[in-house]
From TrEMBL:
This is DNA-binding transcriptional regulator, LysR family. It comes from the Bacteria. Residues 1-58 form the HTH lysR-type domain. It comes from Alkalibacterium subtropicum. Gene3D superfamilies: Periplasmic binding protein-like II, Winged helix-like DNA-binding domain superfamily/Winged helix DNA-binding domain.
Amino acid sequence: MLDYRYKTFLVVANELNYTKAAKKLSLSQPAVSKHIRYIEQHLNTKLVNYEDRQLTLTRKGLFLKKKIEELEAEIEDVKLHLSDKVPERHVTLGASRTIGEYFIPSYTELLNIPDLKIDLVVDNTTRLLNHLEEGKIKYAFISGPVDTEKYCTRPFYRDSVILACSPEHPLAGKKVSINELFTENLLSREQGSGVCDSVEQFFKKHGLTCDQFRHNTRIGNIALLKNYIAANKGIGFLYAISVIEELDAHILDTITIEDVSFYQDFYLVCDKTNANKDEIDKIIHLFTKNLDADL
């Protein structure tokens, strides 16, 4: 078992506030400070800095935090295997909003596996990658460009990026050049979303930017964005998987861009130091086994 003072350090490292950590641990603030000083003296290194009323971790403090979290997970795993209970595996996953709202409910069995407890965090790509680096999630399902040098990535699905519009829009169902679009109002997902990153990379590749549209309004909610597009308030780029129902019901239509095929891979992403090939293979299998039948 870990020394109780290391558990105090972990709470302080997560809260970055002595008062909040003390309250969470039901200890006095001086007691929390004493625990931190003990560990620093024992390890003969500086773990925290406190300047301008702001608590931060040193590089070695960040390293220790990561190692304590790994040790706690290992200890729990040992306890489960030594007990008589059938061990229940537990994994925290992140999913981009497109994947979490449109892919998972229809095409996966990942949330219905006996003896596997999953906590699912749904957020945009940037925040999911931050959660991954902070150790808050183990894997992230990302619907957008990912730095393959920095992370371990495995593509599991490719979707087309479509330019959606209202059926009442003058360009609905038509094929136009990119330059013809710049008189339009563009309705975009928020900065940090996968489709936003993908669209910006697409325009940059063609020597263009989204700022060339007459207006570029960002909306951080897929359903609301589709509602505004359907009401003919503008046009917007979305993944095809997120507009299947609206296209089938003729609530939305599409505009085709001449000489352009626009696709984006979706990835399972994890920290390179935390890559487990067998586990990744199993998650990918459970995540995609219904694709051939339903897509």
